[in-house]
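User: Hey, quick favor. My workstation is busy. Could you predict this chain's structure for me?
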Amino acid sequence: MSIKDRVKKGSSKLINIASENITKAFDYPSIKGRELKNAVKQKIREKAILSTKARLAEHHKTFDDYTDEELEIIICDEESRIKDDLKTKSLVGALAILGLDFLV
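Assistant: No problem, here it is.
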């Protein structure tokens, strides 16, 4: 193998390693963003399940009284309520920071 071939082979390896590292560096925020998004979804789901348990306890019911589809509908409804509540609270907080209390 000639020196020219060795240099070409070595340089192609370096280019591949560099491109992999650059790709990982640029993917890092998207990976962390997905992890954060999944963590937030999980917390909202847990709160929705607790709210569902409280709602069922008020009506003297248990999870066994409903089918999986019905429970999923109830939990999705609680999730949407929690998300709407978070949106409202964040909007009120942002307006309060800006000093626009007359809009609330």
